[in-house]
Amino acid sequence: MLASASEGFTPADIAHAARTVSQAQFERTVDTGTRAAPTTDDYLDTIRDTKPTVSAAMAQEFAQQTQKFARI
User: 2-11, pLDDT tens digit by residue?
Assistant: First the structure.
């Protein structure tokens, strides 16, 4: 579920989403005084709000260049 939601994300994009969720849970814990654990929905919401660093067009262009300039 999380993998398909983060399709096209770079490792840095995924790390950013994870840090964002972690920070939100920390703030919720401080605000409520009760330890808050992240849920799958927390991650999915954050992934939905995170724009991938590499667009589909950029990835396609990179793949074409890789094919064009690859050594045989």
Answer: 999 998 899 9
All domains in the chain, ordered by first residue: 2-69 (1.10.8.60)
| pLDDT at res. 35 | 96
Residues 62, 55: Cα–Cα separation, whole Å: 11
Tens of pLDDT, residue by residue over 35-51, are: 999 999 999 999 999 99
Residue in 63, 45, 62, 60 with CA at minimum distance from that of residue 6 = 45
Q: Which of 43, 61, 46, 53 is nearest to 11 (CA)?
A: 53
What would you report as the CA-atom Rg of the chain, rounded to the nearest whole angstrom? Answer: 17
Neighbours of 10 (CB within 10 A): 13
